[in-house]
């Protein structure tokens, strides 16, 4: 009996040893030569030291699909551990084992860990590095992808889902990351596309590289698929840890409080001089953002895409907030198709996970022109409008300077029931700018004047003084208070405090029909 037990222990030792080695030393060396970490090295960097508990280490795939051979782990490592002491679940595809290809057993491991994450209410993080569907398993491999997609959708808005693309991700494999909340990519070593360069060449006779078709920079700047891009695996995984620290574990909890020892009553007199005296001059909204946030810490989401709007996470009074701000330094802060979609998706995430929203407004309107109209700016702008109206978390707006036309309404205005709407004395709230309004209202007078330019300037000044200052809106109750810029941080923190117990219910319906 002792000998049998001893031999079983030895067998277990050997099985685990084989599994820990993955595809073997030679393939691990190839992985390193390509500038990539192995699946296990990535998990070690992502999680708190010594916290990883592996599940299904001994599971193998179908032997009939790989010439009778079976491989330890079947190309993916799954388990759970902690980030800053909080539980997360993780799967990490192992490119050294059958190219990390996804088959039936591979998918079953991922599905099991996703089910566990949803049941216990913890984030799920996927480290993707896969050659795609395991061709030898035919339609079973496609069915395996479908099972993962099903779980992605069911977990959406319930637990945070994060995807790290750390190698190839092609064909059907791209849809799981695209359903998740945030996509991280690594420069030069990761790419995503539905159809690869070879198919592109065959169908449309165009030569294009993997990087130009679906590299990290393409998806960070052009498509908007990737929210974050980093130079290497190490920096990417550190950023994932940073993001997790801003988020709650699930939709029933609130984000963790982190005290950065930044006094809530702190003021910043320089903000009184942030907005230029000339309305057509730009400034950097980041100056205001970093001034009001705890410790000047801000994690911007999609910083390389639609730069005319800024979205990201910060803390105020220790509490995580989601921040949406127009950026007058880029396209004057105008709302266009990409900016509308970027902000709408961010607003919906924050609302799903109980993260209060703060909106800093300096918007001259929607981008004009046939390119934007034909690209669907009506539909895309409506997405942002819908997202703000649907949100039940605390919603606070500060109008810093321009708030014109429909864009004023869309940017979390009092008229779509934001909770508190502040304005700086420099705010300009109107249907349009002073020049456009004066040219319409006083068209005949200006045309008949001896000096049309002088009269236009005079009318513009009169219009600006009479109609565009924030005090008129405050008298109407559309602005709750006109505040001194230097006091912005303190006023926002106090407002967040009294809105903490806000309760808001939605209509009794299955779901709305957002204008996708």
Structure description:
This protein has 516 residues and is α/β, with parallel strands linked by helices. The chain has three domains: 2-246, Alpha-Beta Complex (2-enoyl-CoA Hydratase, Chain A, domain 1), CATH 3.90.226; 269-431 and 469-499, 2-enoyl-CoA Hydratase, Chain A, domain 1 (Alpha-Beta Complex); 434-467, no CATH class. 41% of the residues lie in helices and 17% in strands. It has 20 helices and 17 strands. It has helices at residues 2-21, 25-33, 39-46, 104-120, 139-155, 175-179, 197-204, 210-214, 216-223, 233-246, 285-292, 337-352, 370-374, 377-390, 405-410, 434-441, 443-448, 452-467, 470-476, 488-499, and strands spanning 53-55, 76-83, 86-93, 124-128, 161-165, 168-170, 182-186, 191-193, 228-230, 298-301, 309-316, 319-326, 357-363, 395-404, 420-423, 428-430, 481-482. The strands form three sheets. Strands 10, 11, 12, 13, 14, 15, 16 and 17 form an eight-stranded mixed β-sheet that branches. Strand 10 (298-301) and strand 11 (309-316) form a beta hairpin. The mean pLDDT is 92.
């Amino acid at each position: 009996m002792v000998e049998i037990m001893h031999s079983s222990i030895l067998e277990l030792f050997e099985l685990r040893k084989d599994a820990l080695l993955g595809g073997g030393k030679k393939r691990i060396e190839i992985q390193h030569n390509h500038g990539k970490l192995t699946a296990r090295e990535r998990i070690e960097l992502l999680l708190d030291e010594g916290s990883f508990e592996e599940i299904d280490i001994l599971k193998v795939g179908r032997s009939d699909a790989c010439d009778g051979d079976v491989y330890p782990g079947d190309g993916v490592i799954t388990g759970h551990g902690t980030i800053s002491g909080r539980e997360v679940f993780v799967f990490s595809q192992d490119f050294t084992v059958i190219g990390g290809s996804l088959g039936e057993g591979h998918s079953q491991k991922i599905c099991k860990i996703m089910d566990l994450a949803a049941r216990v209410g913890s984030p799920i993080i996927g480290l993707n590095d896969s050659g795609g569907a395991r061709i030898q398993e035919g339609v079973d491999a496609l069915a395996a992808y479908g099972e993962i997609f099903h779980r992605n959708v069911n977990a959406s808005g319930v637990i945070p889902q994060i995807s790290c693309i750390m190698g190839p991700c092609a064909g059907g494999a791209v849809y799981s990351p695209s359903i998740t909340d945030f996509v991280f990519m690594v420069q030069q070593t990761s790419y995503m596309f539905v159809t690869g360069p070879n198919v592109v060449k065959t169908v449309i006779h165009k030569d294009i590289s993997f990087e130009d078709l679906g590299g990290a920079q393409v998806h960070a700047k052009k498509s908007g698929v990737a929210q974050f891009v980093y130079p290497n695996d190490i920096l990417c995984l550190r950023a994932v840890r940073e993001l997790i620290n801003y988020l709650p574990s699930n939709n029933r909890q609130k984000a963790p409080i982190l005290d950065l020892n930044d006094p809530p009553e702190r003021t910043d007199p320089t903000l009184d001089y942030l907005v230029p005296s000339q309305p057509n001059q730009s400034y950097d909204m980041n100056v205001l953002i970093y001034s009001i946030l705890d410790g000047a810490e801000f994690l911007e989401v999609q910083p390389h895409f639609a730069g005319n709007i800024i979205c990201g996470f910060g803390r105020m009074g220790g509490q995580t907030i989601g921040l949406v701000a127009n950026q007058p330094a880029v396209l004057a802060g105008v709302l266009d198709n990409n900016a509308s979609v970027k902000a709408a998706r961010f607003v919906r995430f924050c609302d799903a996970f109980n993260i209060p929203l703060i909106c800093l407004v300096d918007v001259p309107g929607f981008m004009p022109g046939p390119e934007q109209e034909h690209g669907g700016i009506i539909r895309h702008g409506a997405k942002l409008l819908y997202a703000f109206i649907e949100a039940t978390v605390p919603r606070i707006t500060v109008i810093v300077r321009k708030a014109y036309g429909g864009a004023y309404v869309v940017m979390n205005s009092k008229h779509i029931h934001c909770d508190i709407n502040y304005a700086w004395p420099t705010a300009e709230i109107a249907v349009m700018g002073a020049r456009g309004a004066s040219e319409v209202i006083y068209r005949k007078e200006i045309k008949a004047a001896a000096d049309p330019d002088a009269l236009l300037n005079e009318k513009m000044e009169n219009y600006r003084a009479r109609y565009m200052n924030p005090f008129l809106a405050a008298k109407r109750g559309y602005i709750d208070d006109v505040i001194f810029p230097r006091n912005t941080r303190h006023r926002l923190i106090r407002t967040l405090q009294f809105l903490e117990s806000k309760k808001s219910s939605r209509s009794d319906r299955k779901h709305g029909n957002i204008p996708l």
